[in-house]
User: What shape does this take?
Amino acid sequence: MHLIFNELSFQPIATNSHIAEERFNTLLQTFNSAKEKYDFKHIRFPQNFSAVQITTSQTFIEWITTISKSKLRDLLFSLYTKPFLDDLDQDEVEIYFESEYTIDNKNVPNKEAPIGLPIAFIKSFPAISIDSHKFWRNRKIYFSKVYKNTVENATSFAYNICQQNDINSTELNEWANYCMSEVIDSEEMLKNYLSYKNYSILFTDNFMEQLFEWKANDTERYKYLLLLMKDVEIHPFTGGMGHTENLRYKGKEASKRITPIPQSDRLSYTLENNIVTFIACKGHYDFH
Assistant: This one.
């Protein structure tokens, strides 16, 4: 996964190199916290990022060569990956170019049309902003979509992080619950989504195969299944969601109901030695 850079947050421009360095240090600290919790790999920057004005007298590429701290310079270069427009597939490109975008809020310090924020919305990824103005600390940034072929407008928003404490905010947890589920494609991403604090997590190959079957064929049930998995940490054997059953004579084996009777697919798992192992999520009980 990637964070999408909000290029508007370059404004207001830093008055000197020292302020620019402080801003990028904050950006890196925020990214590292997001990476630790959600395993973001890079920040997607705009196409012309190197030529963007960073200070009143320097572009990014001019400014970065003057940084005295080689570690900061190397980290900034390591974050850079292909521009965020290159990350759109053909359908997403068409969605992006069917509309024009604007931020109508009177407090926004940059009146230009946003690029990164709409792409963050389309890709269901959070945006990340430089802490250059208090407006960019909003954890949801709303913008209007002006459709080119109609008089109707629509309001959308991108989840946004700007400071380290945004990583554990209600808004980013909301993103994880509603958006991150759509992009889960590996065990590591699933662990990051679940974010267990009390237990380690393991998955059988059979479980992962069944989980992605739900994702491909029944989005609503798939998202409910993810909520059941979150609930396992709180209610592993009794109570909670899914009519939890601690199976008699089965030791640490338990299950939660995914679909109603008579189909009654169940989430089957074990909890032993502080390790939750998810066994299956189709059929009834599936233990060895």
